[in-house]
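Input/output pair, single chain:
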Amino acid sequence: MIIYNNNSSITFSGCLPRAECVLPGTQILTSLNGNTRCVEDLQEGDSIITHDGNSLIEGVVSKTVTISHNEYIKLTLDNGVELGISYDHAIDTPSGWKAYKPQWSEVPHEVTQLVVGDVVNTVTGSTTIINIEEIHETRTMYNLGVKGYHNYFANGVLVHECSNDE
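Output:
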């Protein structure tokens, strides 16, 4: 176990220790026909759906991460979806990767500030953030590494994964 930002603890399997993650129960897109599984149930070698910059493609989980956080944010989107993520988890937008606390992000791309009103990329197109709520409670959270394109769909939203590999 490693102590990270704000006294968070981390255990990991094959991934560099970083805090980016999603809440348990978050549905990860696992097939092109729309099947999903909870993030905490996925293991190395499982199939998931990723995005190559143009289209949805099949990917493979290469790493798993479990982290205990003392705080996170809950995004509410205009399509009715909610997504609980750590402050530093990068989300894909039409203007690039964004995070609530971009200065904490370890994504190997430029990451800018995520705010209410931002449009985020989803499995079906895009949607808009209508609320960001800070939650101050300790929760076990999860992240995945993905071979190839380094992203996955969490509750339908395209998010960055945990690998530093380009």
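The longest strand covers residues 56-69. The radius of gyration is 14 Å.
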